[in-house]
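Hi all, long-time lurker, first post. I run a small reading group and we've been trying to get comfortable going from sequence to structure in the token notation. Rather than ask abstract questions, I figured I'd post a concrete chain and ask someone more experienced to write out its structure so we can walk through it together at our next meeting. Sequence below, copied exactly:
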Amino acid sequence: MAKGVGRIFGRLAQLLGLNAVPVAGFFGQGWSPGTALAIYWVEGLLVIFFVAARILLHRRWTRKRGHFRAPAFSRQRARSVEPTGVDSGSLLGGYLAVAIPFTLAHGLFLGLLLFLFLPKEFGAEAGVALADLGKGTVGILAFLALGLGIDLVRLRERSYRSIEVATERAMGRIFVVHMTIIFGMAGAMFFHAPAALFGVFAGFKTLFDLGGAFPHQELGLEPPRWAKYLDRLPAKDGETFSEHWRRTEEAARRLREENEQAMA
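-- Answer (accepted) --
Happy to help. Here is the structure in token form:
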């Protein structure tokens, strides 16, 4: 119990340090908004390598079956919870297939914002300063390496499901970053202040990162109480919402058990 609490606090401290790099640079060192936002994109790019390293090492050390089949988020996109066979995909491949294109597309969008919109609206001083960007990148790299070091201590003992959940959260972060830039850009245009853009961005990302440090809770086998109201709606294939909930959760649990089996 004490070790688990210690790991959570260690992870929270690491995430706070990670998010403090651009915030401290912007508010304490006078970094430009463009530099601070560029550091976030660099972080997103580096995160891909660190997440991939965790997946690869866990797969090599544990040989869990789940590493060698299509991950849960791929089946969710296909609206299927049925188990897929071994060699139907991989967690690493599924993650990279989503993370790399989204990060590159996000970089293109952010580049237009940093090199066209910000300098035009707020002057050249709002753009990217390469010297400050380099300093921020070093700080980000240090805290990401610290996070990897914390995970490596017990990576062999972790379940496949914990690695899968961490990967899903890393993918969710890409979406959060993209959406906060959009809303933050709207704030900057409305208030005509680049600090509004950075403030929204930093706040949402920090909250999302800190939320991911706490243990994941799986859904219960029994549906929530409000499900009884949905049961009154016309059922698809004669199956009520509660029945669908139980069936899909039972299938998901069986799959999670299979994924934890070690392959020869």
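A couple of things your group might point at:
Residues 2-217 form one domain.
The two ends are 32 Å apart (CA to CA).
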